[in-house]
Design a protein that fits this description.
single chain; about 280 residues; alpha/beta; Rossmann fold; 2 domains; seven-stranded mixed beta sheet; two-stranded antiparallel ribbon; 9 strands
Length: about 280
């Protein structure tokens, strides 16, 4: 079943996020407050129109952004902000995906450079790969293969177009338009990146899927989780993940100048996941 970003779906996604952040009672209180404000400001007809026909656009969200330095350098399209409410999805998991924002290249290069691995033995997997920026950055390293997993088909189209720009990218990388809760990971050692791609309900299912596959096919695997202040408690409930380090990697001045949240560092938590059957 394919879910399209219709106004009712946007409302449902908003409710799912509110429940995640505020609990069921808090979410419904907040929703009723929004309903009463809308009825007061727009009347019954206007409220129904906004809910079921044409959802309002949040101010500033759709404003064009200057090209990211990474895109200016490589001629790619990895920038911008895309609300998950405006993206297509193939399964119910799309209710719990987060917005697309490309990771800061300088911070990811620093984080990948700090890995003490033989890159040629590993496949790099970006779970929630969006437009593919992390895949293109990881292509600077001699990983055996590069795989992006993305639920939104329009982001996959852009990511695949980016890969075609250079043979060395296209020859080593692939983008899978799949739900991460059921994706099949490549054989062999893995480095898995997650740049805050899901809310907790889907993150739990994604980690459970990963654990099942690693138990069925034991191999060395690392999870590099970026921007992780909120869901540490979720990851800690999976004993197969062993935290190795938590490091703040600096953004270059160019990346910091265009960062949507004015960050100067990106936080990465590195986990190992070596399991036996």
């Amino acid at each position: 079943m394919k879910f399209r970003p219709s106004p009712p779906l946007k409302l449902l996604r908003r409710l799912a996020r509110s429940i995640e952040a505020n609990g069921v009672r808090g979410a419904f209180v907040h929703s009723f407050q929004r309903l009463f404000r809308s009825l007061k400001n727009h009347g019954l007809r206007g409220t129904l129109n906004r809910a079921f026909i044409k959802a309002p656009v949040a101010p500033g969200i759709q404003a064009p952004e200057p090209p990211h330095p990474f895109d200016l350098l490589y001629g790619t399209d990895t920038g911008g902000y895309h609300s998950s409410a405006d993206l297509h999805g193939n399964t119910l998991s799309s209710l719990y995906t987060t917005a697309y924002i490309g990771i800061a290249p300088s911070a990811l290069v620093s984080a990948l450079s700090s890995l003490k691995i033989n890159y040629e033995e590993f496949t790099f997997v970006d779970v929630g790969s969006g437009k593919g920026r992390a895949i293109l950055i990881a292509a600077q390293f001699p990983f055996h293969r590069l795989v992006g997993v993305e639920i939104a088909p329009e982001l996959c189209v852009t990511a695949r177009a980016n890969l075609t720009l250079r043979p060395e990218w296209a020859d080593r990388a692939s983008i899978l338009n799949e739900d991460a809760v059921s994706v099949t990971y490549p054989a062999g050692p893995l480095v898995i990146l997650m740049f805050h791609p899901f809310l907790a309900p889907v993150l739990r299912r994604v980690l459970a899927n990963l654990e099942t596959q690693l138990r069925n096919s034991p191999r060395t695997a690392y999870l590099l989780y970026a921007r992780n202040p909120r869901y540490t408690h979720v990851l800690e409930k999976f004993p197969f993940l062993h935290e190795l380090s938590e490091t703040a990697h600096p953004l270059s001045s160019e990346d910091a100048a265009v960062d949507r949240f004015s960050l100067t560092h990106e936080q990465f938590t590195l986990y190992s996941a070596e399991l036996t059957r």
